[in-house]
Write a structure and sequence with these properties.
374 residues, alpha+beta
């Protein structure tokens, strides 16, 4: 009988957990994806790169929301069982409440290990892959570089200024400063291009310039000027200034481990500076520490099992449980940001679940000790 009850409670929890997780993730991911549109409008990446990059960040949204979703799903599960009088049936049948507490705690351990699997393995690997997608992509939409009366330096070492843009997409008074030798056809280290007008080719990969001149400097410091009536430059091979190196949260756990152990690893954020060591500690604590707050949330929600819907304090108790759980999660997020600054902060971060989990469990045992013991 207990197995049947446990399976039923587990199925109810999974239903609420899955629906809430995907609903909230869809909202957060949509807002996040809108912000990523700058990759196309500002940096000139292709839409395929934009969609792939956005999709690869979904795991990050999951890992952020899972603790909060667990809180919501646990409360909704208990409230549903109480509303349908299913908990009363369990208590009158002789089932002790502490057995349900233990079951919720076991469910929290499953979610905790799932969260650890995401934070340690899946999430950083997918985020690292998303950064590599940007790093290996090239400029696709030249037109995104041209904004009226603005200096655009989307491409590293290349600055473009457009004085005016007409309705028929003709650009007037174009100024281009190339300091990266990216226009290799010019055969110079630094070049300045001035044109009276120009337009983007139909494939949006080339810039057609009309009536202008190219000023290029040679290694001896001399300057030569080349006039032209019409010339074309292929800009599709350029890379944008989008951050290509992985951030700390996008660095795989294996590379972070190698960095800590002093092993040779090619990553730009692996050095022995104080700031880097602090960031590494914070990132490790985020990946390992946060999931351990999930069992604590399960015990907090378990206090609702002592309430009855026909009592006056039932409504207030469900809000109190949610508020306490939310405060603990918010507190954990705040503390982890400072956990890398000192070992004391790190200790406080891990001591919160380590101390409160057994404390709350003992309180629950004493609270339900004399209720329907088998």
């Amino acid at each position: 009988m207990k197995k049947t009850i446990y399976k039923y409670i587990f199925s109810e929890f999974i239903r609420y957990f899955t629906i809430t997780l995907f609903a909230l993730s869809a909202i957060v991911w949509t807002v996040q994806a809108v912000n990523f549109l700058d990759l196309v409008t500002e940096d000139g990446h292709a839409f395929s790169i934009y969609f792939l990059y956005s999709i690869l960040t979904i795991s990050k949204v999951f890992t952020k929301l899972i603790p909060f979703v667990f809180l919501v799903a646990s409360i909704l599960t208990i409230l549903k069982l109480e509303k349908d009088n299913e908990l009363i049936v369990l208590w009158t049948s002789g089932l002790n409440k502490i057995f349900v507490v233990n079951h919720l705690f076991k469910i929290s351990l499953i979610v905790m290990f799932f969260q650890l699997f995401l934070t340690i393995g899946i999430n950083p690997s997918l985020l690292n892959l998303s950064r590599m997608v940007l790093k290996n992509s090239q400029l696709e939409f030249v037109s995104s570089m041209f904004k009226e009366k603005q200096f655009n330096d989307t491409v590293q070492g290349l600055t473009i200024f457009i004085d005016e843009k007409s309705e028929n997409k003709i650009y007037k008074n174009i100024f281009i400063l190339d300091e990266s030798s990216s226009l290799s056809s010019l055969g110079s280290k630094s070049s300045t291009i001035v044109a009276k007008s120009g337009y983007v080719s139909d494939d949006e990969k080339s810039l057609i310039l009309l009536n202008g001149n190219i000023q290029k400097s040679d290694n001896d410091g001399g300057i030569s000027v080349i006039s032209f009536q019409k010339t074309s430059y292929n800009l599709s091979g350029f890379s944008t200034k989008s951050i290509s190196e992985p951030k700390m949260q996008e660095t795989t756990s294996i590379n972070i481990y190698k960095c800590i152990m002093g092993k040779s690893v090619k990553m730009h954020n692996c050095n022995k500076t104080k700031k880097t060591l602090i960031n590494i500690k914070i990132e490790i604590n985020k990946r390992i520490g946060m999931p351990f707050f999930i069992p604590l949330i399960a015990l907090i929600c378990s206090f609702l099992l002592g309430s009855r819907k026909d009592k006056k304090n039932f409504i207030s108790n469900k809000y109190i449980s949610f508020l306490i759980g939310f405060i603990i999660l918010a507190l954990a997020e705040m503390i982890v940001r400072y956990s890398g600054t000192s070992w004391h902060h790190t200790a406080v971060y891990y001591l919160i679940p380590a101390v409160m989990i057994p404390l709350f469990y003992i309180i629950l045992i004493r609270k339900f000790k004399y209720e329907n013991l088998n």
